[in-house]
Design a protein that fits this description.
The protein is of the alpha/beta class. The chain folds into two domains: 84 residues, Glutaredoxin, CATH 3.40.30; 230 residues, NADH-ubiquinone oxidoreductase 51kDa subunit (Rossmann fold), CATH 3.40.50. Helix content is 41%, strand content 10%. It has 18 helices and eight strands. Strands 2-1-3-4 form a four-stranded mixed sheet, covered by helices on one side. Strands 7-6-5-8 form a four-stranded parallel sheet, with helices on both faces. α3 packs across α4 and α10 packs antiparallel against α18.
């Protein structure tokens, strides 16, 4: 079932007895292969099921559970926790209004009241004819363009007005109202470190290669040892982009050098803190720079794969990133033979479903693995530097902006980042 179509209250099976199509079941089983444990594929499986069926009634939950070898209650508890999963039909036009602080200050509640008074429903309800439904949601990650409205998980309607809502309720196609004003602009004559200059977008891998893209990634995989990369980042003084400013090199050094278990790089692209939406800008406008940073970080910690957690509301960022990943695989920067080294490194993207989180909780909800309870205790108590991560192996958690900052093409956010990258790219 496509976006914008309401699900049916009556559950009906296909001729083969399945509720989900063969194609959908096959895609769920393919997602399962990306993880050592099937339960880790639960969020993508639920997204696929809801995109086809429209919502997630108990029979659909049971079918997803069977595909992943889980109990139905294990699936249902996830459906009931995340606000973007629906266990009952929503309207053909499902209107989500951001109600977090930036949007609230910009008049979001007035838009909610306008919808309620016009349609005669309250937030969380569906009109009797099934055409419309309304939901107040948490931060949509575009605080600079508040208030923000999203319809059927389509691209955002930013700086939404009462006139926009009136047009939407009168039957105007949401695509005619969608707009995304440019938030971050690097003027001509100034080197853009995270974003291309003058409002440009570099979604094509050829555009990125033209400006020296993936050169540092190739050098780190072909010519540098993991230890030398970690030491370089330590020496640079590069720190995280969050409030703690934790030293990046120290975090990467936490990974044990003598452990034979697989290692994973977990990248947090959820950025659910109000007022923070840097990751969306990077992923939409410069996705290959982000991927090259992931490639370098993966090499530094000897990771078998990177798992990028992206908030489900970032519809455009998800599409752009998935396209960039496909291009990187096609050119040999990812996959079974990274830049001709014979080494394997994969990148997988998993969408959230509307719940805010911080890094350790992000990974716990994403991979649904009890090992993260032990990892959380380890980090809180500071008892040791080794982090036990998904599937009983080692994991490193980074914010989405940090790999991109490290791979800043020689012109990083800070002088230290610049030194680090120049050393990596120029040898």
């Amino acid at each position: 079932m496509s976006d914008g179509e309401a699900g049916n209250d009556t559950v009906s099976s296909a001729a083969d007895g399945h509720l989900l199509s063969g194609e959908c079941r096959g895609r769920i089983q393919a997602e399962r292969l990306h993880y050592p444990r099937a339960r880790a594929a639960l969020l993508p499986a639920l997204h696929l099921a809801q995109e086809e069926y429209g919502h997630l009634p108990r029979p659909v939950v049971g079918e997803v559970a069977a595909l992943l070898g889980l109990l139905p209650i294990q699936v249902q508890e996830v459906v009931s926790f995340y606000p973007l999963f629906h266990d009952r039909p929503v309207g053909c036009c499902h209107i989500q209004v951001c109600a977090n602080i930036a949007c609230a200050l910009a008049g979001a509640h007035k838009l909610v009241k306008l919808v309620e008074s016009t349609l005669g429903i309250r937030s969380g309800e569906v009109t009797p004819d099934g055409r419309f439904s309304l939901a107040e949601v948490e931060c949509l990650g575009s605080c600079g363009t508040a208030p923000v409205v999203q319809v059927n998980n389509r691209p955002y309607l930013e700086r939404a007005s009462a006139a926009d809502i009136e047009r939407l309720l009168s039957g105007t196609d949401p695509a005619e109202l969608e707009r995304a004003p440019l938030n971050s602009l690097i003027p001509d004559g100034i080197d853009g470190y995270l974003l291309p200059p003058n409002g440009q977008t570099r979604g094509s891998i050829d555009e990125y290669l033209t400006v020296g893209g993936y050169q540092a990634g190739q050098r780190t995989w072909r010519e540098m040892s993991p230890e030398s990369i970690v030491q370089l980042v330590k020496s640079s003084g590069l720190r995280g982009r969050g409030g703690a400013g934790f030293p990046t090199g120290a975090k990467w050094a936490f990974m044990s050098q003598d452990c034979s278990k697989p290692r994973y790089l977990a990248v947090n692209g959820d950025e659910s803190e109000p007022g923070t939406f840097k990751d969306r800008q990077i992923l939409e406008r410069n996705p290959h720079q982000f991927l090259e940073g992931v490639l370098i970080a993966g090499r530094a910690i000897r990771a078998a794969a990177a798992y990028v957690y992206l908030r489900a509301e970032y519809t455009v960022a998800y599409r752009v990133l998935m396209d960039a990943i496909a291009q990187a695989y096609a050119r040999g920067f990812l996959g079974d033979n990274v830049v001709g080294t014979g080494q394997k490194f994969d990148v997988y993207v998993q969408r959230g479903a509307g719940a805010p989180r911080e890094p350790t909780i992000m990974v716990t909800t994403r991979l649904r693995d009890s090992a993260f309870k032990r990892a959380l205790r380890t980090m809180a108590l500071g008892s040791e530097a080794k982090l036990e991560g998904p599937f009983g192996n080692l994991a490193l958690y980074n914010n989405a902006a940090r790999p991109a900052v490290f791979l800043a093409g020689g012109i990083g956010v800070t002088p230290f980042a610049s030194i680090a990258v120049r050393a990596a790219t120029e040898g």
